[in-house]
Automatic annotation (TrEMBL):
Ranges: HEAT repeats: 425-463
Biological-process GO terms, alphabetical: protein import into nucleus
InterPro entries: ARM-like, ARM-type_fold, HEAT, HEAT_type_2, IMB1_TNPO1-like_TPR, Importin_beta, Importin_rep_4, Importin_rep_6
Compartments (UniProt record): Cytoplasm; Nucleus
Annotated source species: Spirodela intermedia
A Pfam family assignment: TPR_IMB1
Domain of life from the UniProt record: Eukaryota
Name the UniProt record assigns to this protein: TOG domain-containing protein
Alphabetized SMART domains for the sequence: TOG (SM01349)
Keyword annotations: Acetylation, Cytoplasm, Nucleus, Protein transport, Repeat, Transport
SUPFAM superfamilies per UniProt: ARM repeat
Gene Ontology CC terms: cytoplasm; nucleus
Boundaries of every TOG domain copy: 374-615
Length: 1123
């Protein structure tokens, strides 16, 4: 080995060249031997190694050797902090050699690299070389360690050599993101450089493209709008790069230019605003030009859609150009006409329902969806209304098909506007159910399915009597099995947004048709029928019992007989259907068949299945549904279910990593289920089927823990270490969500098992150990979570975990939770501020306002859960939490401001309410700060804020003693406003009313000496009973009981004149069963009524009794007569 090394690094360069050549060898043994030698050189002789590589790059005559040397040098000389470094084998020596090199070597390398840039003529090698130079320079320039490079670049860009100009521009392009600040002093020089390179008559197409890339990258890095505006006048020259390439037939160059401009549209859309009409007009011309390649036209479409989607950076900008939206929409609909009537579609032997669809068709379909989501119904529906009728009236079937596909694609983005025009939309689609062409009928069914999802439940409620019979008759189309199957599948979409009341009258007809289809020869039709039966059972629940005996034998038969490979999906769907039917009809009806079905599933589970077998995922879900249906009876099967489920949950993501600018595309050809994301300068390909199976498994684990409670205990020790790391599984949201939801379920399961003595002798310390593992991990994941929606879910889970763990939480854990909550509140405020900035944009309009409202609703959910978490901590730790509350008070007071949303104010008030209620005397010190806000909020415009505030006044009245006394007068007048409001009893105001009545009662009870009792107490009595807030109702009616028991003078009134009212309240409370009073209060009420019966004069009793309704008299008599 030493000899080999000596030869490789010796005076004869051919040995080293041979080593580099072997590193590219396709023979594994030769390559791995070369890698071993290369790593030895790197460890022991780094200086010689990099110099040799640099010399090869400069002087080797073989192209592939120079290219490989550029790549190897880049890897040795640059820091790799990206994802890729996490997948490097641990045995490889550290790749980053630069700091280990002698200063003289560093100097030689820099000179050799620049000399190579001057010499190299091969375009592909130039690009690799420029990558190496840029990455090295990006590290060195910040420390001013490569002073020669900027002068070299400025010199090269003005040289006579196009290749050198291009290289310098490529380096500028890549460096701008790292050293934008260093280049700032050279703005005017760069402006001239870019303008010359873009518009000089002598510039080659390659130089122009490189200049376009450099200009776009540089513009994106400029921190201020005014700096970016200095480059505005480059835009016509930038666009000319594109049009000239097209005019001279160089579409490959044009496509490069388009990709760069798309990047600019996504990141700096406002840069285009002043010349928007010209730029978008040019792009639409390209999109409309039939003579150009599809790829070019698709990129032009992508540019316009990207601008429409750039809502955060340029809200409302594209809606200013309705004529362009119309033109783009027409282009996209025209793309949908590119569809052939392929025989494979009609024969319906296989799944591929997209037979005959082209890439044009797919792009058209995807872009209609994106455009409508980006611009909304107010912009899109008028445009669609102009084009759709002409398409539907045309003779060609393709146009009818395109119109229906368009309706289905725009429904999600235009749902609000389409719901207002439902009659028109539904009639348009249903008229096509009779179209002579089966593909059009299929598209009509498809549209109904999509509209049922996007426009439900309005569509179901208003049009069930037209839609369901139409789908049922489409199921009779035995000539066109694909249409039949699709009609059955559309039943799924329809019934998902449907109440049992709507569905039940149609069940006889639908179920009998689906049973006919189940016995049909075509597998696709059978699969559709199974899907439909499953969804109908799921939606109709117990109403499905009457069909159970007819349906189940068919389902079991398919499960047991569909065993060959071609029928795997059929069997999988039968599992889904059986488990959903079982859940619908319930345990008693399903029990006997369930045993049989589970025997079959257990046999299947033990058999060898191929990794792409759909049975695996369907079986995971079927087991979980069977568990939900059978409850504790399912426990014996857990030992069969859990091992494969854990295996699926532990699947490693199948990830391929390449450089984002490399020519090696991730190989998608053999598997369309690869999703590609770009992170920094790395392109990551992930196999989605693996992720979906993992997500399903994690969801099922959560289901079992939720359903089986303490019965899940034996599995916690395996499940917790599987799911906790997945709280930070950023490849797939569903996996994270499932892991998050499972955390409180695991804790609850452990706690119940310990409490019920089922934890094999383990005690509370086990629950603490689990809590110590889960809660910090959840807090840490929350800190790093990029998605607002998942943040809300994490906070919700954290709140549950706090409630379950309670006092097991240590002070340091509480500290971490509180610090993270501060971080969450701050991040939320930042996001709100950014949204407020968007409202100031020139083109901001009502549609953008609507989008913002939706985003803010998500933000409110986050704050809501923040309030719940803090509330749980206050309830758990009471006064010992107050030091933390003091830290948080600046955040809480800020949420009380007039400029804050009602939800923020409500959360702040609830937190003070919790502190006052849980900490009692210890909380009195906060009254001076918080009570003025609380009283003011009693008359807030928002009913939820009023409710929280008046509840708080009640708490302070109960526990505030002398501190509250001076404020009794103001509190009474504030509560009076709530109680006497004309709309006080309307549904949105009634809980605030009930809580105000409760607070009044507490003032009557605890501050009698500070009020005019003869007026206030009867006024309070007149508000009873309260009926909406059932918790407060129980409190208030118990209080009434207490006051009557002590024969309260002001309550009963002179000569007991309020007695009829009191008896009336008691009657209504008793008639309401357990809703308005606890059992204890109810029995106290009955005793009081018996007492009254015995002590009051008969005449008073008779008049009291006569004031009751007949039903109340009967109920009271029955209560009083039973001893």
């Amino acid at each position: 080995m030493e000899q080999q090394l000596a030869a490789i690094l010796g005076p004869d360069p051919s040995h080293f060249e041979a080593l580099v050549s072997h590193l590219m060898s396709t023979a594994n043994e030769q390559r791995s031997q070369a890698e071993g030698l290369f790593n030895l050189c790197k460890s022991h002789h780094p200086d010689v190694l990099v110099l040799r590589l640099a010399q090869l790059l400069h002087s080797s005559l073989r192209h592939e050797i120079r290219a490989m040397s550029a790549i190897l040098l880049r890897k040795q000389l640059t820091r790799d902090d990206s994802v890729a470094s996490t997948v490097a084998p641990p045995s490889a020596p550290s790749a980053y050699l630069w700091p280990r090199l002698a200063p003289s070597t560093q100097s030689d390398i820099k000179s050799l690299l620049l000399a190579s840039v001057q010499r190299e003529e091969v375009k592909s090698i130039c690009k690799k070389l420029c990558d190496t130079v840029s990455e090295l320079a990006s590290n060195l320039l910040l420390e001013n360690a490569w002073p020669d490079i900027l002068p070299f670049m400025f010199q090269s860009v003005t040289s006579d050599s196009p290749r050198l100009q291009e290289s310098a521009l490529l380096i500028f392009s890549q460096l701008s993101q790292y050293i934008g600040d260093i280049l700032l002093p050279h703005l005017s020089t760069l402006h001239t450089v870019f303008l010359n390179a873009l518009s000089s008559a002598t510039s080659t197409p390659d130089v122009r493209i490189a200049a376009l890339g450099a200009a776009i990258n540089f513009i994106q890095c400029l921190p201020s709008t005014s700096d970016r505006d200095r480059f505005q006048d480059l835009l016509p020259a930038m666009m000319r790069t594109l049009t000239e390439a097209l005019n001279s037939g160089q579409e490959a160059t044009a496509q490069e230019a388009l990709e760069l401009l798309i990047e600019l549209a996504g990141t700096e859309p406002k840069f285009l605003r002043r010349q928007l009409v010209e730029v978008v007009g040019s792009m639409l011309q390209i999109a409309e030009a039939d003579g150009l390649e599809e790829g070019t036209r698709h990129l032009a479409v992508e540019f316009v859609i990207t601008l429409a989607e750039a809502r955060e950076r340029a809200p409302g900008m594209m809606r200013r150009l309705p004529q362009f939206v119309g033109r783009l929409f027409a282009v996209l609909m025209k793309m949908l006409l590119d569809i052939e009537d392929d025989q494979a579609w009609h024969s319906a032997e296989s799944e591929d329902e997209d037979a005959g669809e082209t890439s044009n068709y797919s792009v058209g379909q995807e872009c209609l969806d994106r455009l409508s989501i980006a611009l909304g119904g107010n912009t899109i529906v008028p445009v669609a209304s102009e084009l759709l009728p002409a398409y539907l009236a045309a003779p060609e079937w393709q146009k009818h098909h395109a119109a229906l596909i368009t309706l289905a694609q725009i429904a999600e983005g235009c749902s609000k506007v389409m719901i207002r025009n439902l009659e028109q939309v539904v009639s348009m689609v249903l008229s096509c159910f009779q179209d002579p062409h089966p593909r059009v009928r299929w598209a009509a069914i498809n549209a109904i399915g999509q509209l049922s999802t996007d426009l439900g439940p309005d569509l179901q409620v208003q049009y069930h009597q037209r839609v369901l019979p139409a789908l049922a008759s489409a199921m009779d189309d035995f000539q066109n099995p694909r249409v039949q199957a699709h009609a059955a599948s559309a039943i799924l979409n329809f019934s998902e947004n449907c109440t049992p009341e709507i569905l039940t009258p149609y069940l006889d007809g639908i179920v009998s048709k689906l049973l006919v289809l189940l016995q049909n020869g075509k597998q696709m039709v059978q699969e559709g029928a199974l899907t439909a039966l499953a969804s109908v059972a799921d939606s109709s629940q117990e109403h499905f019992q009457k069909y159970y005996d007819a349906v189940m034998p068919y389902l079991k038969s398919i499960l047991m007989t569909a065993s060959d490979k071609s029928r795997r999906m059929l069997r999988a769907k039968s599992m889904e259907c059986i488990s959903l039917v079982g859940m619908a009809v319930g345990k008693e009806k399903f029990r006997d068949d369930a045993k049989q079905v589970m025997e079959v599933l257990m046999t299947l589970q033990g058999s060898q299945m191929e990794s792409d077998d759909p049975t695996i995922s369907y079986m995971l879900q079927a087991w979980a549904r069977l568990c939900k249906c059978l409850g504790k009876d399912f426990l014996p099967y857990m030992s069969v279910v859990m091992p494969p489920l854990l295996q699926s949950a532990q699947l490693k993501p199948d990830v391929t990593i390449t450089s984002a600018d490399s020519d090696d595309d991730i190989d998608e050809s053999d598997d369309e289920s690869i999703e590609t994301i770009t992170l920094g300068d790395k392109r990551i390909g992930i196999k989605t089927s693996v992720l979906e199976e993992k997500a399903t498994a994690c969801n099922m684990l959560c289901c079992y823990a939720d359903e089986l409670k303490e019965g899940f205990y034996p599995w916690i020790d395996q499940v917790a270490p599987t799911l906790v790391p997945l709280l930070k599984f950023y490849f797939h949201e569903e996996v994270r969500k499932a892991a998050v939801s499972a955390m409180p379920e695991l804790l609850r399961s452990a706690k119940l098992a310990v409490e019920k003595g089922l934890a094999q002798g383990r005690d509370e310390s086990y629950v603490k150990q689990l809590s110590d593992y889960i809660i910090p991990a959840l807090v840490d994941a929350l800190n790093k979570e990029p998605e607002t929606e998942i943040c809300a879910t994490m906070l919700d889970s954290l709140n549950e975990c706090i409630q379950i763990s309670g006092s097991l939480l240590s002070e340091s854990q509480v500290r971490c939770i509180v610090d993270e909550i501060k971080h969450v509140i701050t991040a939320s405020s930042t996001r709100k501020r950014e949204r407020d900035e968007r409202t100031k944009a020139e083109d901001f309009d009502a549609d953008e306002g609507e989008f913002l409202r939706e985003e803010n609703e998500q933000e409110e959910e986050v704050l809501d859960h923040v309030g719940d978490c803090l509330g749980a901590l206050i309830k758990t730790f009471k006064a010992s939490f107050l030091p933390f509350f003091d830290e948080l008070s600046t955040f809480i007071m800020a949420m009380w401001g007039k400029d804050k949303t009602p939800e923020e104010r409500r959360v702040a008030i609830c937190l003070f309410d919790d502190v006052a209620e849980q900490c009692r005397e210890a909380a009195l010190k906060y009254y001076n700060t918080y009570l003025p806000f609380l009283l003011e909020s009693c008359n807030d415009d928002d009913p939820d804020v009023r409710q929280a505030a008046v509840y708080g006044v009640g708490v302070c009245a109960e526990f505030g003693g002398s501190v509250f006394k001076p404020l009794v007068g103001e509190a009474l007048s504030r509560l009076n406003v709530v109680v006497r409001h004309a709309d006080a009893l309307k549904s949105e105001n009634v809980t605030a009313y009930d809580n105000a009545v409760s607070a009044l009662g507490k003032i009557c009870l605890f501050h009698r000496d500070s009020i005019d009792a003869a007026q206030v107490v009867p006024a309070w009595l007149n508000c009873l009973p309260i009926r909406a807030d059932l918790i407060e109702a129980k409190v208030v009616h118990e209080q009434l009981c207490t006051m009557v028991e002590r024969w309260d003078r002001e309550l009963l009134g002179p000569n007991n004149e309020h007695l009829p009212k009191i008896v009336q309240v008691f009657a209504e409370v008793l008639c309401a069963g357990k809703d308005l009073a606890t059992e204890q209060t109810a029995s106290r009420v009955i005793n009081l009524l018996r007492q009254l019966q015995q002590t009051l004069p008969p005449s008073v009793l008779a008049s009291t009794w006569s004031s009751l309704q007949p039903q109340q008299q009967l109920t009271l008599q029955s209560f009083l007569s039973t001893q």
